[in-house]
Amino acid sequence: MISRTSGEEGPKVYGAQQHNLIVDARPTVNALAMQAVGLGSENMDHYRFATKAYLGIDNIHVMRDSLNKVIDALKDSDITSIPPNREALAKSGWLKHIANVLDGASLIARQVALQHSHVLIHCSDGWDRTSQLSALSQLCLDPYYRTLEGFIVLVEKDWLSFGHMFNHRSGFLSSEKWFSVENERVGGNDNHNQRTSLSTSSSGAGHALENAFLSAKGFFNKDNNSRESFVESDGELQPYDQSPSPNLSKKSLKTSKTSSKDSTTTSEKTPNPPTKVKETSPIFHQFLDATYQLQHQHPHRFEFNERFLRRLLYHLYSCQYGTFLYNNERERVENHVKERTRSVWDYFLSRREMFINPEWDGGDVDDK
Known about the structure:
Elements: E1 2-3, E2 12-13, E3 20-24, H1 28-35, E4 50-54, H2 60-74, H3 86-92, H4 94-113, E5 119-122, H5 129-141, H6 148-160, H7 166-170, H8 176-187, H9 190-196, H10 204-220, H11 250-255, H12 260-264, H13 283-297, H14 306-318, H15 329-334, H16 337-340, H17 344-350
Parallel strand pairs: 3-4, 3-5
Antiparallel strand pairs: 1-2
Helix pairs in contact: 2-3, 2-10, 4-5, 4-13, 5-6, 5-13, 8-10, 13-14
């Protein structure tokens, strides 16, 4: 609405004004450092119609280390009566990171809803922090995405179809030797276990829980400190042994040592390379935690309950369903995931009553 009053030279404007925003999820220092090598962020001289905001959300390595500290603070409380170490939890910075992501989502949602503006979101690669911010802001803006079916659509759209690399971030398809080494590290070797099985049988449950936490901690560690240092300098896990796999011909193994031209002529399809430990990070885990925080603050606004989020996180790593396998849509199509596996959404929709929030308000809009 525009009106003119006597004695005033220009129009007086009422109501929301469009003010486009470019959101860079990274810390300002990180973006400027990338500019020094020819990358970085937008030159705002070319985007005079918009402003830019840096959100200061840390990278995948910081998030992985933060989760490790959370595990260290919580692991003893599950096997003893000692409460969690609150000081260690605070030092982990996990909740600070979740708060930063939620603050960014709030900024985006307000810009779209109140300012009627367009928002461009990006980070370094475009499928970690970008997916978090985009999905969470839509969760705040549209009550449809707070329903069970809507949340499924949101994950499919902004995570799976958008190209979040679940294989890299979650650590699927890691080397078999990784798991053997981790079992030895957290559980001891077989001979030692045989000698002590009788004396420790009473505390087996406690050791199992502790080993589970230690295994998770080792899995997300930036460096694998297990026996013989099987990780190369770039963090890539090595195969368990050099013996030919039953699924690979001798020709394919031989051509792996020759030039790339020879290897491309091999009719055998090479398997997916092992996951690099330094590429794992709990990005989707953080998104689910941030969703829980919103759910806890607004318990009547979500059709699904906390159990749904916890079970979804479990099945992210269980690999019982094909939904989160591979890094992108193309890989899932090429490997016939839909034909060879079941969708995790079938599991939830067939047990819908288990994951419904009885306090849900039905999606009514509240403008108060």
